Structures are given as C-alpha cells and as structure tokens.
Amino acid sequence: MNKIYKQFIILTLFFLLFFTTGCSNTDLENENTKLRTEIDSLRNEIEECSNELTLIKNTPEQRKLRAQKYFSEDNFKKSIFEYEGIIENYEGTEEANQAEEAINKIKKIIEDRIKEEERKKALGYKVLKSNVKPKFGKLSLNFSSISKGQTWSFDSHSTEYSYRSAQRGYTYVLAKVTISSESNNPDLPPVLIYKMEEGELKLVGRMGYEFRRWKDYGSYLGNYADYGNDFGHSKSINFNLGCQVSNEDVSKGVYVVLKKEECFRRKTGGFRPSVEYVESYCEIKDKLSVNDFDKEYILLKKL
C-alpha cells in the first residue's frame, strides 16, 4: 500500500505540472496515455491488495480470533459462523477439527441454557437459593441474623443504645451483618424488601444502615474517632439494618434481597452519631424476575 501511495503522489504532481506549465497537444496526449497506463496499473495493484487483505482476514487464525471474541460476547450465532468458515475452507486440517470441537461446545452451552430457562419457568421463584455470605467487588458480607421484630436497636455504647419502634400496623425487618472490605472507603450495597404479588416480586422497602456499636459515648458524639467503625483502619465493621414493612405484607412473606451495587456512602459531620452511611442514587428495580438473580441480585432470605 505504501507503493500505491507514492504513485498517487507522483500522479498528483504530474497533474499540477500540466496545469502550471504550457505544453502542446501532442505532449498532452502522450502524457495522458502514460497517466492512463499508470492508473490502470494502480487499479490492478489495489485489486491485488484487496484480494490479499480478504485472504488474510479469512485465515484460520483470524477467523478463530473473531469466533473467540463473539463467544466472549455471548454472540454464539456469529461465533459458530466463523468456525464453520474454517471447516468449509480448511477441511481435514487440525484447525478444522478444533473448530468442530468449538462448535460442539457452543451447542452444548446453548442446550444447557435452554434447559435452565425451562427449569426456571417450571419452578418460578422456588429455584432461588438463599446466600447469607455474598461477595462481589471488594466486599464480603456475612449476615448473622435476618429476622422481624417491633424494635430496631443500634449505636450501642457503654450501657446505652439507640432504637426505633415500629408504628402501629407495621413490623421491622431486621438484619445483622458484618461487612469486610479490601477498600479503605467503600460504598455499601442496598438491602431491599420485596413481596410476592400477582406472581412477581414487587419492591416494598429499602433497609437503612446503622452502626451496631461505638467504643464509648465520646466517639459516638464525634469527640474523637472510633477506628472500629472506619474501614480506613478496620477491615470489618458490624452494622444493624432495619426497614418498616406493613404487617399485611410480612404475614404473606417477604424476600430480603441484596443488589450488587455500591451506593450507600459514608457521611461525616452529623450529630449523634457523627458518622453514618446514607443512600445515594441506586438504580433499583421495582419488580424482579427470576433472571434478575443471575447477575444483579442475591436472595438473602425469605421471611
């Protein structure tokens, strides 16, 4: 292609020369003939380069690379097409045999996924399994208790603690969790409450974060730091979570769900306590299907 570029430059200079200097009709005719010959030669070279490029793109190595890329993107149809091209054009070679093995592997994956979808449709939400020790990103969570009650207690220090009592007609869904982080200042994931209604899970509330305990009353007020409640100094911190849910919803059964998104942020400068975790923007679905639990959501417990 470099040769073609150089010849293109030469042709351009020829044209400039013709328009900037006078010449006879005979000279022009001769030069035009030469230019047409050069142009025809360039066209042939471009066609040859194009054919070469097509061949390079269709070598087994290149088609295999494209097939692997499509496979990583879950584009199984295009991946199989590339492997079939290797089999068709290089029949009997080792590359063709490998391509056939790859196609069989992809077809098995497709078959397994179809069976799994059929199983999910048959069992519905019964297919979901509880996981009270989820991990994602740099976070590890260990829920030691998920329950319901009339009082949500937290911020224990010395012999005192804070609490909130449920309103009439409501019950608290409560959770105790220890969160460990590889980061010094992580955002925390939302813990959500869903109810079953008309065959699907519908959002009814979001649990709030409170520290389980403080070193003493002075650290609770913010007079000095409590490194036990600071990921910058402690790998693991204990929290008590709570959310008010109507007695009607609780009686029918609720699902406690975690979304793998970090959106509760540490905020300082408050009063009683001086540090807290507050919710920033979380992209949470109002309704969940079974498939949402494949990647984004985790069932912690059904109450």
Provide the descriptors you would attach to this structure in a database record.
5-stranded antiparallel sheet; 7 helices; alpha+beta; Immunoglobulin-like; 303 residues; 2 domains; single chain; elongated; 30% strand
Any overview of this molecule?
The protein is an alpha+beta fold. The protein has two domains: 2-119, no CATH class; 128-302, Immunoglobulin-like, CATH 2.60.40. Helix content is 40%, strand content 30%. The chain has seven helices and 14 strands. The strands form four sheets. The chain has a five-stranded antiparallel β-sheet. A five-stranded antiparallel β-sheet has the order 13-7-6-10-14. It has a two-stranded antiparallel ribbon with strand order 3-4. Helix 3 (60-72) packs parallel to helix 5. The radius of gyration is 34 Å and the shape is elongated.
Q: How do the strands and helices of this protein lay out in sequence?
A:
Blueprint: H1 2-20, H2 25-57, H3 60-72, H4 76-89, H5 94-123, E1 135-136, E2 139-149, E3 151-157, E4 160-165, E5 170-181, E6 191-197, E7 200-206, E8 208-211, H6 217-221, E9 236-246, H7 247-252, E10 254-259, E11 264-268, E12 275-279, E13 287-288, E14 297-302
Antiparallel strand pairs: 1-2, 2-5, 3-4, 5-9, 6-7, 6-10, 7-13, 8-9, 10-14, 11-12
